[in-house]
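Give me structure tokens for this 81-residue protein.
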Amino acid sequence: MLARTHGQAASPTTLGKEIANFVYRLHNQYSKIKSHSFAGKLNGAVGNFNSHVFVYPEYDWPAISKEFIEGLDLVFNPYTT
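Here you go.
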């Protein structure tokens, strides 16, 4: 089949080679997504636990937030805006 480069005809290629290229790239992206770690926060709109402390000042909100986020298999991000 006719291959293309930069929007114009190029040298011939095979459908099998093009499918192999697609599968290789898809596998590469899947590996990157699979190994990526996702971060989470639970410290309010500006990251200071303001509304949390206003309602329940006696709780240790940074510790509760960390335990909750890590319980979801996320990386705890304590400093956010």
